TrEMBL record, chains A, B:
Protein name according to UniProt: alanine transaminase
All copies of domain Aminotransferase class I/classII large, residue ranges: 156-543
Pathway membership, UniProt: Amino-acid degradation; L-alanine degradation via transaminase pathway; pyruvate from L-alanine: step 1/1
GO biological processes: L-alanine catabolic process
PANTHER family registered for this protein in UniProt: ALANINE AMINOTRANSFERASE (PTHR11751), ALANINE AMINOTRANSFERASE 1 (PTHR11751:SF308)
A cellular component annotation (GO) from this entry: cytoplasm
Function of the molecule: Catalyzes the reversible transamination between alanine and 2-oxoglutarate to form pyruvate and glutamate.
Enzyme class label: transferase
Family according to the record: Belongs to the class-I pyridoxal-phosphate-dependent aminotransferase family. Alanine aminotransferase subfamily.
CC cofactor: pyridoxal 5'-phosphate
Gene: gpt
The entry's keywords: Aminotransferase, Pyridoxal phosphate, Transferase
Catalytic function, reaction form: L-alanine + 2-oxoglutarate = pyruvate + L-glutamate
Length: 556, 556
């Protein structure tokens, strides 16, 4: 009754203070002028307290509702920045790897600390490739050199091996005022870019790399977004289309949403171990040409979240396709050392491109990305990375340099770390033996855990997992009973989100639902890192197994 | 003659490979279809070699010119990404602090190394607030704790004071796996956000600060761009307008260009020591309302590049203005410890806002920014920073948290450093005395150099310099002879750029011309940091003095 007497207004488009532009629809129906939903306030977080609510509020559909007093006077002041008046592109951004399920996991951790009883003692965050958080130890050599760079007084300390000191001195000499607290050149410290170029040359069997084509970055994500930023142009049917794999790493879809680019999905072939079919690329680009201007093809190799490692032949085919269709290639190669499966080998796009001869190597535009966060280093917190650009128009390169200069420089400790990654201890140097031992142990353990993950998951009826050939994740397919799918839909959540949320609440295991990465309609997956220690991973996989059986039974 | 026989085409809008959309205007006139300039190629870097040029090229006006063979055949393959087909917003970005003059400075440094004779021995980069590069020493306590966090084995080293170890342990305990190599929460490590909130409370005389309103960032720049990103919306006349001071720090204009927001200039009053007049704000916002939707007011206090420190009264007036006009306030307060002039004091916008009572403190939306890069720390390379958001709509805050999560997290070493800045050694702790000594010495030296800069520059006829009340720069006005202005214009460069370039070539001193920051038409300035050591700064100022006299004579 009381509710009925309340008069609501829907204010759209601008701050209510800008009277000239405020459009006010008085309505008793509470029908949203944007999405047409009737009574959207019932779905708003304020619905239960709508009678006492007196300011501005927003509904899920994104409109602003403002309560008027009975005499129709509108309160004088509202917020400048609301869901309704904010950047619409930002609203479209989604990033499942740190989405609602992770927020709930953080909440549960707090509840556990406060003594709330749960059927488990700890939350295990297997949602993100965060090696150190999962107990992986940093490489001693890296941290010693970084400590020396941070506090150069330690250069007099005899406990540090001589080669760590030489490295630190070399890095410091390249810094303004010999301090990693100085800004570097925006493209990155020159001698580090030279080291990166030499690393690429060694990796690619001597194919030359030009330090001028290397840009250090704040993690690989920063590099990827920067290149996309250059590429996005046009309006309507001429708007830039960017081809990304499905499943994908959601940085891509998030960046495209923010930049307002057109996302073009190409599906990886789950039946063939998540391989890439050129016919699917062709289908996708041709369909996209109807409504946008496809200009970019993104590849993640080794794959995230899908763990496949591309064959040399496949990479060649992709390059030929990109050349034929006039696409700029972006190769996300941050897992280049994470290759486990027998018969698999990492081939960089750069190397294959140059081996294909000048017809390709002098024309196809390519940007390749690497990072300090993955492989055997796992140094995510330092936000180190680099990109190499090949065949980029020199004028565009000047624009790129200008663009990165606005943010001054990538974090210098991350740059220093990137230097150590591309230029590790050499045979004969004091730190060599320990470095090799540590690196080998980490990569061997990852290979074992990749195998174990596949094996245990494939013993579960209703779960089928492709071999984890590389990277750091399994992405198994899960069968969900129809009744569970219906219940999830009734709740308005994706069925695999429903599954993962239940898993989290019952076992404390935090995974990311496949819907956060994209998947073929009607299929369901989750992504799970292989990073926990072998013992812990085994327990975790068996808990997933038990949960899946329980879940299946419950909803059958 | 030969030139006449060449047929040029102007290709616009898309890659030449997309035949369907390529628009080709054959023309003998070389009139640019974009800017209407006739014979733009004459101003292009390729003009002198146009007869031998055979690929794609670009003119200053941003169009692509492609030479056709005499029979009119267009070469088959062009670049996907060219000046013509790239993101037009990125092209509009300018960032003078690292612009052409700095690029030339780097070149000259290389030439000096190669033994090229110059009238000077070294390039002095007084263009950027890069304290360590200018010889300022890092704070020992900060670097000790960071070294301990980086290489925790040092916790067993007896040469580190106990309080540095306690701090390192506390930070490490807040990191995943006790490693600064783990990702943190996207908003920043929780206990660091708590420390920031407590710092703000102490600074602002007890006005409460909520850690949930604190977001750690990759330097202040990152925070500023992120908030602007949320605020930019609308099209045409409803497009978000953002008010920035002129002169301004060019991060603002660069970010607005990239985001496609409308830049609304308000001019600081040079005659009144670069103070801010509310009547000028009013003029600017009213004029802007004709063509856009002014929603944001950016303030830099203490000022960059202008060095003024705002009075409490002025801040109150600005807040009242923002409230009345419905503007979101962005307060760039990265120089909050850099206040030198007698009678001047730093007042945070947050504090003044809350002292104005609930009418303002519960309504005006404010984001305030701080950083590890300036003040007495000068740790630019670590890219540490934070922002505090006040009265932000909770739904928008959720969007902000989502947006920052896409980039995973700010660099953790920078977060740790921010923690130490907001929570320095306390009386009674072993590191306290040294910390205070170092901080005081740095700030005292800066105050002396601020004074010296003003005094020496004001002895030069034709240079007039306002007091450097705060921040790290002088921004003196320079009189340029009419003949110099004409010569610069004939060369197509801004007169103060012409002046600064000549100064660089003749003395090795690298300054940024006022045109890079914006200035009233017909006035000319440069920005110069006060960061070099007192001895060096004196030499530098006297060199500028001599140069200015020589320059004036030469062109009079």
């Amino acid at each position: 009754m009381l509710l009925r007497r309340i008069i609501w207004v829907v204010a759209r488009g601008r701050s209510p203070l800008c009277d000239s532009a405020t459009v006010i629809y008085p309505t008793r129906q509470l029908k949203c002028a944007g999405c047409g939903m009737v009574n959207p306030s019932l779905q708003s977080p304020h619905s239960s307290s709508s009678r006492t609510f007196s300011g501005l509020s927003t509904t899920r559909c994104g409109l602003i509702y403002r309560k008027m007093s009975e005499n129709g006077a509108v309160p004088r002041r509202g917020k400048v920045l609301t869901l309704d008046t904010m950047n619409a592109s930002v609203k479209k951004v989604e990033y499942a790897v740190r989405g609602p399920i992770v927020q709930r996991a953080v909440q549960i951790e707090k509840e556990l600390k406060e003594g709330v009883k749960k059927p488990f003692d700890e939350v295990i965050k297997a949602n993100i490739g965060d090696a150190h958080a999962m107990g992986q130890r940093p490489i001693t050599f890296f941290r010693q050199v970084l400590a020396l760079c941070t506090y150069p007084e330690l250069l007099d300390d005899n406990t540090f091996p001589e080669d760590t000191k030489n490295r630190a001195r070399r890095i410091l000499q390249a810094c303004g005022g010999n301090s990693i607290g100085a800004y570097s050149a925006s493209q990155g410290i020159e001698c580090i870019r030279q080291d990166v170029a030499r690393y690429i040359e060694r990796r690619d069997g001597g194919i030359p790399s030009d330090p001028d084509n290397i840009y250090l970055s704040t993690g690989a994500s920063d590099g990827i977004v920067t290149i996309l930023k250059l590429l996005v142009a046009g309006e309507g049917r001429t708007r830039t289309g960017v081809m990304i794999s499905i499943p994908q790493y959601p940085l891509y879809s998030a960046a495209l949403a923010e930049l307002g680019a057109v996302q073009i999905n190409y599906y990886l072939n789950e039946e063939k171990c998540w391989s890439l079919d050129i016919s699917e690329l062709k289908r996708a680009v041709e369909a996209a040409r109807q409504h946008c201007n496809p200009r970019v093809l993104c590849i993640i190799n080794p794959g995230n979240p899908t763990g496949q490692v591309q064959s040399r032949q496949c990479i060649e085919d992709v390059i030929r396709f990109a050349a034929k269709e006039g696409l700029f290639l972006m190769a996300d190669e941050v897992y280049q050392d994470n290759v486990y499966a027998e018969g698999c080998q990492f081939h960089s796009f750069k190397k294959v491109l140059f081996e294909m001869g000048p017809e390709y190597s002098s024309t196809v535009e390519l940007a390749s990305f690497h990072s300090t966060s993955k492989c055997y280093m796992g140094e995510c917190g330092f936000r180190g990375g680099y990109m190499e650009v090949i065949n980029m128009d020199p004028d565009v390169k000047a624009q790129l340099t200008k663009l990165v200069s606005v943010r001054l420089c990538p974090p210098v400790p991350g740059q220093a770390l990137m230097d150590l990654v591309v230029n590790p201890p050499q045979p004969g140097e004091p730190s060599y033996a320990t470095f090799i031992k540590e690196r080998t142990a980490t990569l061997r353990a990852l290979a074992e855990k990749a195998k174990m993950t596949e094996e245990i998951l494939n013993t579960v009826p209703g779960i089928s997992c492709n071999p984890v050939q590389g990277a750091m994740y399994s992405f198994p397919r899960i069968s969900l009973p129809e009744r569970a799918v219906q219940e999830a839909k009734a709740k308005g959540v994706a069925p695999d989100m429903f599954y993962c949320m239940k898993l989290l609440e019952e076992t404390g295991i935090c995974l990311v639902p496949g819907s956060g990465f994209g998947q073929k309609d009607g299929t369901f997956h989750f992504r799970m890192t292989i990073l926990p220690s072998a013992d812990k991973l085994k327990v975790l996989l068996n808990k997933v197994k038990e949960f899946h059986q329980r879940f299946t039974q419950q909803y059958s």
